[in-house]
Amino acid sequence: METVTLMNGMKMPMVGTGTNTYGKVDNKYDGALNDDFSALESAIKAGYRLIDTAIYYRNEVGVGQTIKDSEIARGEFYLTTKIPETDEYVGSKGLVEQTVLQSLANLQTDYIDLFLIHQPIEDKKTLKRTWEVLESLVDAGKIKSIGVSNFSIRLLEEMKEYTRIQPAVNQIESNPSNWNNELIDYLKDQAILPEAWGPLVKVTEEQRAKLTKIGNKYGKNWGQVLLRYQIQRGVVVIPKSHNKERQLSNLDLFNFNLFTEDIQIIEEL
Ligand SMILES: NC(=O)c1ccc[n+]([C@@H]2O[C@H](COP(=O)([O-])OP(=O)(O)OC[C@H]3O[C@@H](n4cnc5c(N)ncnc54)[C@H](OP(=O)(O)O)[C@@H]3O)[C@@H](O)[C@H]2O)c1
């Protein structure tokens, strides 16, 4: 698996698996938990090591157990989780700390590789206080890297006033309906790694047909073309599938290079 080096020197896999519907009835985000983590088991067997979960997904415990049951060393994995932006979690220093400690317990681990703030915290004081607690947990070795998700340029600029440790990652939507290019350009300029959620959603039939045509040149499918485009431009992707073949296909991205003419078509989708 190819990796990218974050601004703090830590390495992160270029491709990971999302988990937001794993362990849930009918594979639905809001579905009740059913303890069926076979999709994560199969993702791990396929070779995924970056696992992206969140407190909002309610499945940290099952994710942690599945990782443990894989009997693969903890050090092989790259675990991401995310704290909700609501007062219940970030309303005080103590709550933030307690939330991180709970995630560590849920995931059955001594450290989290990447801990993100899931959604923008608009209250300046709350964001500053939350960030400072996360920084102290990096100092304590409980988190390796800290970052944000769905943060705007404005909010990232505002954070510069007080951050001792810069956000290493901003996890944002990026797909043909919303490439988020202005934000991605800004992140690259700031050495903040862009990580794309929903890399395979919101693709129209017409876009799929164009991507399929490109893929035929390389012996790849439309999804692989999209994912390759992202990693080739330095964006980490976390596609999620409940299907073993698609999980394998979404990892099989490191044996071809998109030509400039094809990149141009993708950018104009
Ligand atoms: N930070 C945030 O605010 C945020 C928001 C949304 C998501 N996320 C994270 O990002 C992860 C990925 O996003 P996502 O799950 O919304 O979307 P995604 O991974 O882009 O797409 C998932 C959908 O695409 C299908 N799929 C996967 N591979 C495919 C392929 N090769 N060909 C055709 N269809 C394919 C899946 O169906 P099958 O299961 O049938 O294959 C599923 O319906 C999430 O799981 C979550 O961890 C973060």
Give a short overview:
By secondary structure, this protein is α/β, with parallel strands linked by helices. The chain contains eleven helices and ten strands. It has a single domain, classed as Alpha-Beta Barrel (TIM Barrel), CATH 3.20.20.
Description:
- This protein is of the alpha/beta class and 269 residues long.
- It has a single domain (3-202, 235-242), classed as NADP-dependent oxidoreductase domain (TIM Barrel).
- Helix content is 41%, strand content 16%.
- It contains 11 helices and 10 strands.
- The strands form 2 sheets. Strands 3-4-5-6-7-8-9-10 form an 8-stranded parallel beta sheet. A two-stranded antiparallel ribbon has the order 1-2.
- Helix 5 links the parallel strand 6 (112-117) and strand 7.
- Helix 4 packs across helix 5 (124-139).
- The two termini are 28 Å apart.
- The mean pLDDT is 98.
- Bound molecules: NADP nicotinamide-adenine-dinucleotide phosphate (NAP).
- Residues 18-20, 52, 118, 149-150, 171, 197-201, 223, 238-243, 246, 249-250 line the site of NADP nicotinamide-adenine-dinucleotide phosphate (NAP).
